[in-house]
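Exercise: predict the fold of this chain.
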Amino acid sequence: MFTIAEALILLGTDDEKGTAVSSASSSLNYGLTGSILSELAMMGRIELKDGKVILADDTLTEISYFNTVIDEIKEDHKERTVEHWINHFSGNTKAINDPVYLSLVDKGILKEEDKTYFLFFNTNVYPTVDARPEQEIRKHVNDVVFNNRTADPEIAMLLSLIKTCDLTAEVFGRERKEEADKKLAEIIENNEYGKAVSKTVQDMEAAILMATTTVVTTTVIMNNN
């Protein structure tokens, strides 16, 4: 069983290099934060109030990076927008990215390696050691998009983030990218899983996707200038 964040990391990480695939290098961090906020909304931990994220239930979970987000929202003395939190956590790899990657290391799917760039710059990379879980996730999302398999709320959000993070070609293949993009747009627009989640969660997820798309687009434009 994987969180949306773990599934997104597996799909968006180069199996051999252990870093984000090139198409998602500027967006994966934002998508990762969006996935965590979304899952916390599904769990009833956070919700929107007048466009701001508030804690509905500060009970901690068994997942460290969920608890990090809950604690920081709780400790902040001001109610903040979804975009604020996506920017905030996306810039804090030690609080969010590393724990998600390490959770997959603990499950025996990735391994942690120290990589040195330009002789002095060190960073951790996470190559794949067991490709089967990622293959199963890929098969699942392909079945939803191309074989009319029902999308539960978690998979529907994952599909939305695949599109937002420009992972469509990576996940569905370049030859089927155009077809997949159209299918993804239909699934997102039709919101076929809406009956499975509350209006509060739907509102939160819509805000998360809008905010994630905004910061990803802004980042890509800035990086290309």
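Check your answer against the key: The first strand starts at residue 46 and ends at 49.
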